[in-house]
Specification:
Blueprint (H helix, E strand, L loop, with lengths): L1 E7 L2 E6 L10 E10 L2 H9 L1 E2 L2 E2 L4 E2 L3 E9 L16 E4 L2 E2 L5 H4 L10 E2 L12 E5 L3 E3 L6 H5 L1 H14 L7 E4 L3 H12 L5 E5 L2 H9 L3 E4 L5 H8 L5 E6 L5 H9 E9 L12 H7 L2 E4 L7 H9 L9 E6 L3 H10 L6 E5 L6
Parallel strand pairs: 13-14, 13-16, 14-15, 16-17, 17-18, 19-20
Antiparallel strand pairs: 1-2, 1-6, 3-7, 3-11, 3-20, 4-5, 7-8, 8-12, 9-10
Helix pairs in contact: 4-5, 4-10, 7-8
The chain binds zinc ion (ZN) (2 copies).
One zinc ion (ZN) binds next to loops.
């Protein structure tokens, strides 16, 4: 079957690989339908590493995905406790926590000490025609949600988890630094949670425009440092909660400056150089609470419901679609932020390129 594997920095190859085994107990074989490209995938693509985890062997990326059950092993019970059968379309939670370690037992499966995660070394991801996954990580998708939107449920879950961690209260003011897919989803979740106003700073104009369309007060960087603009708009107070949703770097400091004394800064993005850069005095004087967000918890069912009921718009974020065989082009475009890219979806099994 066809797959796309990363061999080294920017070295993605479309390759034939052996078919997966047939599903064992509690497993299903999925025909992959749609895979989203994530900012973390771009990190891995550029550097052949994510944080301090190196890509040692050719790696199949892709952790935001949906597919159709082709074969179900015995006792293939999905994430909602129902038996999976061939033909059922599902979105997949890429995290496979052990359920037994201290972190799992303590209610933090996203921090599992024995975590497997699709597309994170050494586990292969979904940029291929078929994949074997634990049935419990699958969530059936209603007809109203198409394959591409189903692949958006994972990043939506990340956004929901980050907002939950922030302990946002109704009428809290919020700033979001970086309007990539996560920032744009987080904006919608924070709005649903009652945040107001919502400032978004972003240097790519089409993304800022999209944030405004989705209900944000845009902070255009040509108007001066974003934190200064936010202070002007809040009578010098700053916002209650600031979310860093870009590639960290200078945005961490920007978020810390935008937030009020005693405020909370939630870090969602991943920095390029694996360093957290923040002026200590900014954090100290304000007595800031820094919260580092890691993936998500049990957010899939809620993410699904929000999309199904039209409470969150994921379609507006999907700017590009590519067939599997052209995934290398999709990554190249996304990495250079060309053609007004927001979210790229790789469509698998939808005919030949
Ligand atoms: Zn992701
Ligand atoms: Zn665990």
């Amino acid at each position: 079957m066809l797959s796309v594997r990363l061999h080294g920095p920017r070295d993605l190859r479309v390759e034939e690989i052996p078919e997966p085994d047939s599903p064992g107990p509690g497993e299903v074989l999925l025909a992959v339908r749609a895979v989203g490209i994530c900012g973390s995938d771009l990190h891995t693509y550029r550097d052949a590493r994510i944080g301090d985890t190196l890509v040692q062997e050719p790696l199949i990326l892709g952790h935001e995905f949906a597919g159709v059950v082709e074969l179900a092993g015995p006792d293939a019970v999905d994430g909602l406790g129902q038996l999976l059968r061939p033909g059922i379309r599902v979105a997949v939670d890429p995290a496979q926590p052990c359920g037994r370690c201290e972190m799992c037992e303590d209610g933090n499966p996203n921090l599992c000490l024995h975590l497997h995660f699709c597309g994170h070394p050494p586990d292969n991801g979904a940029l291929r025609e078929r994949i074997l996954v634990p049935a419990r990580t699958c969530f059936p998708v209603p007809d109203q949600i198409d394959d591409a939107a189903a692949a958006m449920l994972e990043p939506l879950g990340v956004a929901i988890h980050a907002v939950n961690l922030s302990r946002l209260r109704v009428k809290d003011s919020v700033s979001i630094h970086g309007a990539g897919p996560i920032g744009l989803l987080l904006l919608q979740i924070a709005k649903l949670a009652g945040a107001e106003p919502l400032y978004v700073s972003e240097n790519l104009p089409w993304r800022l425009w999209l944030a405004a369309r989705l209900g944000a007060t845009p902070i255009d960087q040509s108007g001066g440092p974003p934190a200064g603009q936010i202070h002007n708009k809040t009578q010098g107070r700053g916002v209650d909660v600031a979310f860093e949703c870009g590639w960290a770097g200078t945005l961490v400091q920007e978020a810390a400056e935008a937030v009020r004394y005693g405020g909370r800064v939630v870090l969602v993005g991943i920095p390029e150089d694996d360093r957290l850069t923040l002026k200590h005095s900014t954090a100290r004087r304000k007595g800031l609470t820094l919260v580092v967000s890691r993936r998500m918890k049990h957010t899939f069912p809620w993410a699904m419901e929000l999309v199904e009921r039209g409470r969150v718009d994921v379609q507006s974020l999907i700017s590009h679609r590519y067939p599997l065989a052209r995934a290398p082009e999709a990554f190249a475009l996304n990495e250079k932020y060309q053609n007004e890219v927001v979210k790229v979806i790789v469509e698998v099994g939808s005919g030949h390129p």
